[in-house]
Amino acid sequence: MLERQLTTDAKGHFLNTNQCFSADGKWLVYDTRNDDSKIGRTGSIELVNVVTGEVKRLYHTRNQTEHGPGVGAASFSPAVNRVIFIHGIRNADEKNPYGFTRRTGVAIDVNNPEMPIFMDARDIKEPFTPGALRGGTHAHSWSGDGQRLSFTYNDEVIAQLSKTNPDVQDLRTVGVMFPRKVAVADEANGENNCGEMFSVVVAKVTENPVAGSDDIDKAFDECWIGKRGYQKADGSWQVSAIAFQGNVKDENGGTKTEIFVVDLPADLSLANQGESLAGTVHHRPDVPMGVKQRRITFTKEGVIGPRHWLRSNLEGTQVVFLSKDPSGFINVFAVSPNGGPVKQISFHLFDIQSGLNFSPDGQYISYVAQNAIYITDVTTGESKQLTESSSDDDRPVSAVVWSPDGKVLAYNRYVKNEDNYLQIFLLEKE
């Protein structure tokens, strides 16, 4: 494969960890960060044509400062020509800056740039609105059919309560939104907003997990399972499901990260009796009726390595993650969404440095290791180094993303110069 630098202008070009390519494979979407931690300071979402290098600005924030609102982590829908990204709350300032509980999901139709579509409604004042959230969404990911979006979530109401009540904590969790408009009183200060989609929390977290149990105090870095779900052990088909990382307490009370699955019902708008999808001033939102949560790994080491999102192949037969192998190196492992044995996929005698992505046909997994781009054959475990190892100054960073046809790999690299801007590179079949 041939390596080619796609962007050259003097600014950052930060690719999300997945879903960066348009459905036709012609465009990549990115934000203009030069540092992963600087979403709050970043004001633009852009597109670049993978053939011509043409750049188009898709969206820019108003009144952008170092405190927000900020945008980042953009993803293309697989079904329509639409992009979603993190957007800080519009009234961000020094007193109330961009933060975990102060962000939302905004979409832009590519043919209608600069026109924000607020996807998840936000309502932080009682009485709370079912289908709206009271905090911040992040890391939005489209389902295979483009109808639902998953996200991680932190609750502003609970975060404020935790300042005066030590028994309550703002615990990160995972949610889902689906098409159904939610109306909220839109205050003049921009704190609340209506939404095009109905949002719910789908992972159950608790402040005090019982040691040795399947209770979790954090749910995060999830993925959709399969393009259309997965086949259960009894032969039936689960149409919609998410795998996520969950922090449990081991027998000694230490924290360990394992993998969980939530099977989702067709209708996510119904609450269990006596519970509230909207939450209360003293209680975080409850999960919808029919959501089934279960743990699928019981490993010695747990999930270990650089921050990464779980990934599933399109058939929904495997969920892959990083962990430490018996030799002590960070490698790729896989497990069925039904649980069962964990299988080691890669066998490097060095650590993997980035997140993972499946090729569209499910044959390969891509990632960064030894400051180079690697792929590993899921069936044989054979690994190939596709680029030369770089110095730390011009190393590849973050995940390596496949085009929809599997012929192109896109990734970020720092280009060594006086500014060290983050640029987009491509690997293309000769």
From TrEMBL:
Protein name (Swiss-Prot/TrEMBL): DUF3748 domain-containing protein
InterPro entries named among the record's database cross-references: 6-blade_b-propeller_TolB-like (IPR011042), DUF3748 (IPR022223), Peptidase_S9B_N (IPR002469)
Entry-linked Gene3D superfamilies: TolB, C-terminal domain
Residues covered by the Dipeptidylpeptidase IV N-terminal domain: 356-413
GO annotation (BP), single: proteolysis
Position of the signal peptide: none
